[in-house]
């Protein structure tokens, strides 16, 4: 029996997914649930599920950092994004960071479960190296803090959200974004994100 770990801070989402699976006769899957990234990592360590469905907005992780942290601890994990955040850039960044795929919460329960079953039936590929961010001309000029800020800019976070998550002053984040744009020759924030499409 395949095991799927659903990581979402909304209990109704987790229960709803399980209920839909049972109602549709998909009882060959054992479901594990976590409401935080920390609990998800503990459950993964204990059970090694076949698939992880990871939300992008958790109490202890915002944006793609949850995916990045999870795969840093468990590089062989098969993690797919299950989120209401559906921007094309976020999807591309998730794949670049090592996500198996992406299924939006707005999809019908049948589509979600068909997608999950497809991932479970597909043989795992050889794990690939996980880049910090996709490469772009000038990326090697960025320092570690600038790379962490860039990751969050690409995830669609505001300067204030980045400052809050990284524990930096807002002015420090603004300066980092300006430096990143200068080093990558980006004319605007929108142009900056377009460099990674």
What is the general shape? elongated
The total beta strand count reads 7
Largest sheet: 5 strands, parallel
CATH topology of the largest domain: Rossmann fold
Classify the beta-strand content into a percent band: 5-15%
**Average of per-residue pLDDT values:** 83
CATH superfamily of the largest domain: Response regulator
Helix content: 40-55%
User: Ends: how far apart?
Assistant: 38 Å
The structural class is alpha/beta
Gross CATH architecture of the largest domain: 3-Layer(aba) Sandwich
Task: Give start-end ranges of low-pLDDT stretches.
Answer: 125-134
Describe this structure in words.
This protein has nine helices and seven strands; from the N terminus they run βαβαβββαβαβααααα. The strands form two sheets. The protein has a five-stranded parallel β-sheet, sandwiched between helices. The protein has a two-stranded antiparallel ribbon with strand order 4-5. The chain has two domains: about 1-120, Response regulator (Rossmann fold), CATH 3.40.50; about 140-195, Orthogonal Bundle (Arc Repressor Mutant, subunit A), CATH 1.10.10.10. Mean pLDDT is about 85; it is low at about 125-135. It has about 200 residues and is α/β, with parallel strands linked by helices. The protein has helices at about 10-25, 35-45, 65-75, 90-95, 110-120, 145-155, 160-165, 170-185, 190-195, and strands at about 1-5, 30-35, 50-55, 55-60, 60, 80-85, 100-105.
């Amino acid at each position: 029996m395949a095991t799927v770990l659903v990581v979402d801070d909304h209990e109704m989402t987790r229960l709803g997914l399980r209920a839909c699976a049972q109602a549709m006769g998909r009882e060959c899957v054992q479901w594990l649930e976590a409401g935080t990234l920390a609990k998800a990592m503990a459950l993964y360590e204990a059970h090694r599920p076949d698939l992880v469905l990871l939300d992008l907005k958790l109490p202890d992780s915002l944006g793609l950092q949850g995916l990045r942290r999870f795969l840093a601890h468990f590089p062989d994990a098969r993690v797919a994004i299950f989120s209401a955040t559906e921007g094309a850039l976020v999807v591309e960044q998730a794949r670049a960071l090592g996500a198996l795929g992406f299924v939006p919460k707005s999809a019908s329960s049948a589509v979600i479960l068909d997608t999950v079953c497809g991932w479970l039936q597909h043989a795992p590929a050889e794990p690939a190296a996980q880049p910090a961010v996709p490469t772009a001309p000038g990326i090697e000029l960025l320092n570690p803090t600038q790379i962490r800020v860039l990751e969050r800019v690409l995830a669609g976070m505001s300067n204030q959200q980045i400052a809050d998550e990284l524990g930096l002053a807002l002015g420090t984040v603004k300066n980092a974004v300006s430096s990143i744009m200068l080093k990558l020759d980006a004319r605007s924030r929108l142009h900056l994100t377009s460099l990674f499409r």
